[in-house]
Amino acid sequence: MTSLELGIIGNGSIAGLIDDQGAYQWMCLPRFDGQPVFNELLGGLGEFRCELVGLKSSHQEYIRNTAVLKTTLTTHDDCEVDIIDFCPRFTAKGRTFRPMSFVRRIIPRCGNARIVLKITPSEGWTNKPMSTERGTSHIRFRSEENSFRMTTDAPISYVMTQTAFTLDRPINIICTPDESLSDAPEQLARDWEERTVDYWQEWSRRLAVPFDYQDAVIRAAITLKLCVFEETGGIVAALTTSIPEHEGSQRNWDYRFCWIRDAYFTVTALNRLSSVSTLEYYLRYLRNVAAHTDGGHIQPVYGVGLEAQLVEDIIEELPGYRGHKPVRRGNQASEHVQHDVYGQVILGAAQAFFDHRLRAPAGEQDFRDLEKIGERAFEMHDKPDAGIWEYRTIASVHTSSALMCWAACDRLSKIADHLGHAERGEHWAKRARIIREKIEKEAWSEKKQAYAGAFGGDDLDASVLLMIEVGFVDGSDERFRKTVDAIDRELRVGNAVYRYRHADDFGKPETAFTACTFWHIDALAMTGRREEAKELFEFVLANRTKLGLLSEDMVPETGELWGNFPQTYSMVGIINSATRLSRSWASVC
């Protein structure tokens, strides 16, 4: 049965998801939000697999601290084969080499293994096979939307006919845009693998990781980096579409786009590990968002190429994950009004005004552009919107949206003071005070003795836990501590936390939202309840995939994962909570 036990390879241009038997389950070309050429994850016919005749077992792991994946297959008579998968990424000729290419090396380890190579990419959403054209040592795959070339030293006749053959030497497969290679496949594949391993291990070595939970944090950091489309700086919320939030839920969304909100959290988490390059990429993306909108409405989500039109439609040709329809392409959230986005833009850019390590730190022009966004935040802070959870038919003045509008004004005040603009600093500080007073008055529920999810309401919402994350309160704030208690009572089930428990457009949620569990963990830790926080944290860690990854949602009773994968929100939570709960290096070493 299809599951989310998947490894991820990528290089900042493309990414692929591979199951524990070495079969590609998902890959889009020419970028994250492109046409899926391998689509078995959603029941499609596009496949790329190496089948071992007489397979008994498989094991999958990453080469240490890299995005290079190794799958080991073993037969009943103890033949063993390694499959190495990666997307090349390294520095060459003074620039980052991250082509639209992916490599597979198949290496015999013992015995006379027999394999079948199957590569039948799909035309994408039509689910029809791409046309093929055989060359001497390659196969061209073509469709109206995509084309790529597979160059290999495997017998082309066997590949074309999917005939089993004895693996008596390493086989190398290099998939690239439709162009010839400069060297023999084995030489190029070995060289690219070596240099890609070196790149990732050097990148990981520079991370400022906490003492405890190091492996979990490093894997989370690498995974987040794989979700950055470096050409523009856009960061996708996940690499998949239409993995339902729970069985039969109809909550099947396309997450292969850049939510300003999710991207902010990703950048912040990597900043905590001293990986500032993502901030530099993303700052370029935000500068373009600011230029395009010029103080007006900002969408909550754009394409990674800053596309504004993400028209949502349903793909009937694909059966869906485990047969759960619908399969969606595009996301209606691009049409939503979500006022928290103004705060997320400014929060995402704020560090760039203060961090001396950046090659191109933010300056006066950036501040002027952000002030326009701040004006919009102040104007919208008490207006109804779709909220952080993107309700489709429900509009309220959501507390989390007002909170982020407060954060926009608060950070602009700090930036203005830093730049020596005292008058502007006071201007924004005054506006932040106005929003604060309104939140404290309108969002507080006397009935629940907690901050509610919307002004004047009583329904609890885990997004208010972000108050402590953005500095609206500290751990001693009595109202916030009561809010944490209330969420613990009403939204927590076992060791997982729901976004909310009231009905929305699709009924009541049936799975916990993993990011909310992490927000609760952080709130517990910052209000002095560290042991409870560690218990929740270690529950979530224990329910990651075998490779240490998380999707969007979790069944509290079983730990089963649902929702799009890998979810950046969830991987961010690993980093943030580990950083807060770890012992300090000084206390141990």
Automatic annotation (TrEMBL):
<dbReference type="InterPro" id="IPR011613">
    <property type="entry name" value="GH15-like"/>
</dbReference>
<dbReference type="InterPro" id="IPR045582">
    <property type="entry name" value="Trehalase-like_N"/>
</dbReference>
<dbReference type="Pfam" id="PF19291">
    <property type="entry name" value="TREH_N"/>
</dbReference>
<feature type="domain" description="GH15-like">
    <location>
        <begin position="213"/>
        <end position="577"/>
    </location>
</feature>
<dbReference type="InterPro" id="IPR012341">
    <property type="entry name" value="6hp_glycosidase-like_sf"/>
</dbReference>
<dbReference type="GO" id="GO:0016787">
    <property type="term" value="F:hydrolase activity"/>
</dbReference>
<dbReference type="Pfam" id="PF00723">
    <property type="entry name" value="Glyco_hydro_15"/>
</dbReference>
<feature type="domain" description="Trehalase-like N-terminal">
    <location>
        <begin position="7"/>
        <end position="145"/>
    </location>
</feature>
<keyword id="KW-0378">Hydrolase</keyword>
<dbReference type="InterPro" id="IPR008928">
    <property type="entry name" value="6-hairpin_glycosidase_sf"/>
</dbReference>
<protein>
    <submittedName>
        <fullName>Glycoside hydrolase family 15 protein</fullName>
    </submittedName>
</protein>
